[in-house]
UniProtKB/TrEMBL annotation:
It comes from the Bacteria. Keywords: Aminotransferase, DNA-binding, Pyridoxal phosphate, Transcription, Transcription regulation, Transferase. It comes from Sphaerotilus montanus. Residues 1-69 form the HTH gntR-type domain. PROSITE patterns: HTH_GNTR. This is DNA-binding transcriptional MocR family regulator. In the C-terminal section; belongs to the class-I pyridoxal-phosphate-dependent aminotransferase family. SMART domains: HTH_GNTR. SUPFAM superfamilies: PLP-dependent transferases, Winged helix' DNA-binding domain. One of its GO terms (molecular function) is transaminase activity.
Amino acid sequence: MTRYADLADDLTDAIRRGALRPGERLPSVRQACASRGVSASTVFQAYDLLEARGLIESRPRSGFFVRAPQSGVAAEPMATMPVGDTTEVAIADLVMQVLGSTRDRDVVPLGSAFPSPRLFPLADLARSGARSMRALDPDRLVEDLSAGNERLRHQIARRQTLAGIAVDPDEIVITHGAMEALDLCLRLLTRPGDIVAVESPTFYAALQALERHGLRAVEVATDPRDGVDPDALAAVLARHRVAACWLMPNFQNPLGSLMPVERKRAVVALLARHGVPLIEDDVYGELHFGATRPPPAKAFDEAGGVLHCTSFSKCLAPGYRVGWVSAGQHAPALRRLKTMTSLATAVPSQLAIAEYLVQGGFDRHLRQLRRRLEVQQQAMRAGIERHFPVGTRVSRPQGGYFLWLELPEGADALALHRQALACSISIAPGPLFSADHRLRRGLRLNFGHPPEDTRIAGALETLGQLAGRTGISAAR
């Protein structure tokens, strides 16, 4: 599998760099075999994968050619332009109203925040859990209470070093998923009435956390490709007394944006000058489509002001609820707060994941997962291209499993949500992702469910038809 996937990845990179241009013929199967030293079967598998990604097309008796970009919805969404005022957050009722439907198995989960559980090695994790429980030393149940299992923290520290974060295992606090990690950081750094800077749009769970703790939000202009605008953030910091900043630099939910390295460095330096801590949500960092994992903002933290939060829920073990914070100088205070809040994280889940990491299957699983998600993204973008109204804009994320759509003028994503739900299709409308319920034309779709689920293709077609009922003809 590695050989054909490596060939496909090399050709994907060449197409994206422009070394292979639209309409240009790919090397013949015989030429590719000779140049790469692989079999014809390997080349055909690689070309099949490129076709699934929507990058090439086969022409009878002529060979394989780089596919020209399709017209219609090729444009990316525009950067947001929030007004910069603080907002009292009131989002919980809307979130519960809109997303309650995602638990129904009969509803196509395009609005879900989770990928398909079938993408994960749950059977292998169960075996790892059984092995670790058989070897469990009962005394460790008490020793590992607040900070978390020592073996797991060592494995996490090892992986974070590879991601560019030099972290001591003692700085890591294991939590009930990333949401507890993020919530603990928020409670540690803020008091009711404080202002927290967030992206625009931002993940609705962040807004729910702010509402729960009586905090005010100030939204910062965010580009669908490059993330938060440092100049816009500087203007917010000059205008407001911000207590903390909550950002998702890698494959942001809902936009899918990836902050370039220099932009991450600039944001971290800017916040350090103002003495504003950064709560970094990095749950999608492992789901990159490129060759290397993008470094988190924590990698550029020289002042100790970044609290890096992530979990295994999105990349390995959904439902196990194992997350963590690399808290640096804040680790002792965070550990105390964790003890007062929930005392400890479930031990069997920690042991199962630690054992799985030690056995060495994680990176192989991640390679397969990333390739699968990239293919699924291409399939969903192609479906949107075929079925959605002319003038629809769609993001082009380099990782994660969300697409952000900007519908044409006159569209109402909340009305579309109600119509789609009547057809047993869930979506995540834009107002969920803004403290003041803006972004009425915005829409987040989840491509984390395999396209072989025939309901996905049919749901996209139905959704496109519903979106086109505002009087705008659908692209064909």
